Amino acid sequence: MVKKSETSAKSLKREEMVKYAFDTFYKNGFHATGVDTVMEGTGISKRTLYKHFGSKEGLILATIEYYKIFMRELITNYINQEKKPIEKVLRIFDFLIERVEAGYSNGCFVMNAKTEYVNKASDIETSCDNYTAGLQNLLETVIKDANLPNAKERVIQIMILFEGAIIRSKVTKNADTVRIAKDAARILCQHK
To answer: Looking at the keywords, is Repressor present (predicted)?
Structure first.
């Protein structure tokens, strides 16, 4: 019985570290955030941090995984509130508009990680690519339900608009560009 509660406590501490690191990395960036900052914020020792994650890159991978899980659920639930396939696809832009307007204007956590670690940490890059592929697969399934031709190409075009809107909203700190990207995506979805 003691082992189960110890395991549970360790799991909670690990989760606390991941959430704190996620918030800190999102706010300050990956290279600008040192392990010492995470240790201070969570009250853990360097030894404990390395025991759980092995390295700073291991901690970053854990935060990316955390982001992938909760964001996948948020986006899927959000777009599935719509029944019409084309409107479902376009809802991803509405999701982004709401996020930006709620103050999440530091961009996409995964895109930020990919940018900071391009050609530096293949595990981080792969994890980021897997997130993007998952989002792309979700949109592709919805586009196929709309019976639009060239589904793969259309999804890539929509992804370009979506990712561009994320980057632009990070610069402008508002959702105007996201609305423009949504209008362009609507045009893409109307062409047979």
So the answer is: no
